[in-house]
From TrEMBL, chain A:
Belongs to the CENP-K/MCM22 family. The gene is cenpk. It is found in: Chromosome, Centromere; Nucleus. It comes from the Eukaryota. Keywords: Centromere, Chromosome, Coiled coil, Nucleus. This is Centromere protein K. Residues 40-93 form a coiled coil. InterPro entries: Centromere_CenpK (IPR020993). GO terms for cellular component: chromosome, centromeric region; nucleus. The lineage of its organism: Eukaryota, Metazoa, Chordata, Craniata, Vertebrata. The keyword Magnesium does not apply. It comes from Chanos chanos. GO terms for biological process: kinetochore assembly; mitotic sister chromatid segregation.
UniProtKB/TrEMBL annotation, chain B:
Coiled coil: none annotated. It is found in: Chromosome, Centromere; Nucleus. It comes from Chanos chanos. This is Centromere protein M. InterPro entries: Centromere_Cenp-M, P-loop_NTPase. It comes from the Eukaryota. Its main location: nucleus. GO terms for cellular component: chromosome, centromeric region; nucleus. Keywords: Centromere, Chromosome, Nucleus. The keyword Transmembrane does not apply. Gene3D superfamilies: P-loop containing nucleotide triphosphate hydrolases.
Length: 287, 182
């Protein structure tokens, strides 16, 4: 009873093949296990009644078939009579109440609720999928909108700039504009110079303190720190020389150049030595 | 027994029987496999045949057929002819919602339009539904199987408050007026 046979086979006589698989029918089995004898017998009675009704009708059909087997009638007439008969049937049918046994009602209700539950679960999951998809779309659209807004802003800025330029294109305005630009560049340069000098004083001090720390060294070396110039001064000298006389950018080193600093400048490619005179250095060409 | 009749046997409990008729025997096996494996709630028996009439020696063991599906492959002219000759062996009782046409190969560009049109005309004149199916892909076979299953459940009387006649009144093939005239 709990087994369901599912098969298909060719209806062509000799080459009949048969495939059979067995599937447990879950709902049917649970129903049969739970019922008491009373409920079972009530259901079986109901089934018997239905089945005898079915047999009676089947016999009637067979009788009617043999009677009217040779009656040739057109398809449409058949259809019409069948439809009207069905209509009549529907109009006559009274809704049938279920058996009043509480056990049966409970089982039927349970089954209904379970079906409803699975259906609702499916609805829920599909709704969630749809919602997520919509969220994604919304996000994409918002990013797109943001991008478009940015583009609009940039373009309108450009437009206003161009309009201003075309409107106030007089000699005075060009002059003012140029002055402003020069001022900006000057500010930038002085800021750079400040930073540079700060950095140099912080990280490249002159070796005076070292000399002060040890008395012996001071006596050994006849106070070389007094004549030394700072790294920023060396750089200034080099830069000025390059700018003032580009044809002859070499600076002659004397004892005021602390050798470690000149060495550092040479090694890092900031300055280069004169190819013939090793006492002369110049600023590397950075352009 | 020359005619296959729909009501001469007792129906079985929770069982639906579907008969697939296809001359080429290509699509029907695939379809049968999917139908049998998909449906778990009721018994579905799928019977396969190349053509009607069915052999008389099987008549006693054959259950009551709830739905006859004629599979027509539009690529072959022979398929259409075989279907037309088979249809004569059906009792008129089948044509109240227990016959369905399944057309494959309609998407193939080289197929003449007349064949599809003649199947449509036949389906419309018999008030039967005509389904189009894709037989090359797994999804197509699955979709066709599901549609057939939902029809056979109704025609086997397994769906409360729905009857085969009622369903076929809604799903029958119709022809546009301009095609009907020529």
């Amino acid at each position: 009873m709990a087994l369901v046979h599912t098969n298909f086979y060719a209806d062509t006589g000799a080459s009949a093949k048969q495939t059979e698989s067995q599937i447990i029918h879950p709902s049917e089995r649970s129903v049969h296990n739970e019922f008491s004898d009373e409920a079972k017998s009530e259901l079986l009675d109901e089934c018997e009644k239905q089945f005898s009704q079915l047999q009676k009708l089947q016999n009637e059909i067979l009788l009617a078939d043999t009677e009217s087997s040779d009656g040739e009638s057109s398809e449409i007439v058949n259809r019409l009579s069948a439809l009207s008969a069905e209509l009549e049937q529907w109009q006559e049918t009274e809704p049938k109440l279920m058996p009043t046994n509480p056990e049966i009602l409970l089982a039927v209700g349970k089954e209904e609720l379970q079906t409803l539950n699975t259906q609702l679960k499916m609805v829920l999951s599909s709704a969630q999928v749809k919602r997520d998809a919509l969220k994604d779309t919304l996000k994409r659209e918002q990013t797109w909108l943001q991008e478009k807004k940015e583009v609009l802003n940039a373009v309108s800025e450009k437009v206003s700039e161009l309009r201003l330029e075309s409107e106030g294109l007089s000699e005075h305005s060009v002059l003012v504009d140029m002055k402003r630009k020069i001022q900006t560049v000057k500010d930038y340069q002085s800021r750079l110079m400040d930073t540079l000098s700060d950095m140099l004083t912080d990280h490249f001090p002159l070796p005076e303190e070292q000399a002060n720390t040890s008395k012996r060294k001071r006596t050994a070396l006849p106070d070389p720190g007094r004549h030394l110039i700072s790294l920023s001064e060396i750089l200034e000298l080099l830069t000025n020389k390059t700018l003032e006389s580009p044809h002859e950018p070499y600076v002659t080193m004397d004892e005021s150049f602390w050798p470690p600093y000149t060495e550092m400048l040479l090694r890092n490619g900031i300055a280069t030595r004169h190819p013939e005179d090793s006492t002369k250095i110049r600023l590397e060409n950075f352009y | 027994m020359a005619l296959l009749t729909p009501f001469n046997k007792m129906p079985e409990l929770n069982t639906a029987n579907i008969l697939l008729v296809e001359n080429e025997e290509q699509f029907q096996t695939k379809l049968a496999d999917v139908i049998v494996n998909y449906e778990k709630q009721i018994n579905v028996n799928v019977r396969l045949a190349r053509k009607l009439p069915l052999p008389i020696e099987n008549a006693d063991t054959r259950p009551r057929i709830d739905l006859v599906v004629f599979i027509v492959n539009l690529i072959y002219e022979r398929s259409l002819q075989a279907m037309e000759s088979s249809i004569k062996h059906l009792d008129s009782g089948f044509f109240v919602g227990k016959v369905c046409f399944l057309v494959t190969g309609a998407r193939c560009g080289s197929v003449s339009h007349e064949r599809l049109l003649s199947v449509r005309k036949l389906a419309a004149s018999l008030h039967c539904p005509m389904l189009c199916a894709e037989d090359q892909t797994t999804e197509g076979v699955r979709a066709a199987a599901l549609r057939l299953l939902s029809i056979v459940k109704v025609s086997a009387g397994l769906v409360p408050t729905a009857t085969a006649l009622y369903l076929s009144a809604l799903t029958r093939c119709t022809l546009p007026a301009e095609l009907d005239q020529d």
